[in-house]
Request: fold
Amino acid sequence: MTLQHPTDRLHSRKADAKAAYSKDARKRLIVSRSKLDGATTAVRQAITVGGLKSSKPLDLTVNAMEANFKDVETRLGDLQNSGEDDWEELRILLESAWENLAHSIRNLVARFADESHQGRDRDV
Reply:
């Protein structure tokens, strides 16, 4: 029977924790991409059928959401490529990027609702 050195066990735990976090984050990224695609499609369809007018604020909101998604994607890649000693610091940056993405999604939903409401008010 071979005994592991305590630093080997610590290294193994860090590697396992990083791998588990990376796997969950990758799944979350895939789900987020799907939801973002759905939101973007809904906005485009609303514009196409005339229920919503394209506007600079709406376009900027969609672009911000996409930029925040790319930031999450980049930070996840950085984390996955990091060493076991660096990944926890990068996890904090990734979590901040997730918060920025969530904020931009809330902004898009609010902008979509405002623009839709304004369109209905013009029709009345």
User: Anything to note?
Assistant: The radius of gyration is 21 Å.
